[in-house]
Amino acid sequence: DFADREGLRYDVIHSHYWLSGVAAEALSKAWGGTPIVQMFHTLGHMKNQIARDPSERASQSRLDGETQVVRIADRIIAPTPAEVEQLVRLYGAAREKIVVAPPGVDLAHFHPIPQLQAKQMIGIPPQRKNILFAGRIEPLKGIDTLLEAIALLKERRIADLSETCVTIIGGNPWADTLDEEMERLQRMSLELGLDDLVAFAGARDQNILPYYYAAAEMVVMPSHYESFGMVALEAMAMGTPVIASEVGGLAYVVCDGYNGFLVPRRDAQALAHRIADLLNDRLLRERLSRNAVHYARDYDWAIIAERIAAVYEETLAHHPARA
């Protein structure tokens, strides 16, 4: 209705996530076959492979919707080669219509800030080392593995935690009725004796988030599945090394030993040792930090936008002209 009222004619529909892809099919038909470029960001079948509880599984309607969108989309953008293979294997996608183009990062917003300045901004004492998690509070993010790793560090004393804190950004830890996963994690933190180390900081605005990245010695992403891993890229743009599970897009964004470290998912011991490496070695942190900033430059939105625009042009070139 809006397009008709305003006299607009769209050349391409770029839909994100599966439900927008379903809507895109209806719009394409209404507009006489406007081509569809689709990016899923997460895949239901991949979530189901790592789900530990029925409540974590993607619905059948989502799986059916994704399968239909894969079939009707003119082009599909995958953030990594890993997702290309997942789309082909799990959804029967035609390989020739999939293009690899990662998301970008706004380097005007995410760029190195002096760590002491960042700590002062968010109220962390200058001598305190900060381990940061940022993301949604849900089981597939593996925050329980991070808590187990911190408990191992404390128990085995393989790193000095006397001036260390763990900040978990996401969710609402002060809600009258806590989200089930938030409640589980807070209870787990208490049971592991980490209440003096771990702070559940809740969601943070995008304007203040860069200071949290810059104030941290490392960002930890112990996810069980990530299609890409924007948090990792944002942290690197700030010059903060990333320790991540070797899964999905994280295995491509994090270059082990260059801009961070990769560990097996759900392996608290391996994660604990990599956290200790960064806590104990300032020169290592500085080297990974420099590399991370250099690496993130290739993901500048100015560069990525050109790649996305090229996908639009290529899609239109292979699509029959509309009357």
From TrEMBL:
InterPro entries: Glyco_trans_1, Glyco_trans_4-like_N, Glycosyltransferase_grp1. Signal peptide: none annotated. Pfam families: Glyco_transf_4, Glycos_transf_1. The keyword Transferase applies. Residues 119-292 form the Glycosyl transferase family domain. The keyword Transferase applies. This is Glycosyltransferase family 1 protein. It comes from Candidatus Thermofonsia Clade 3 bacterium.
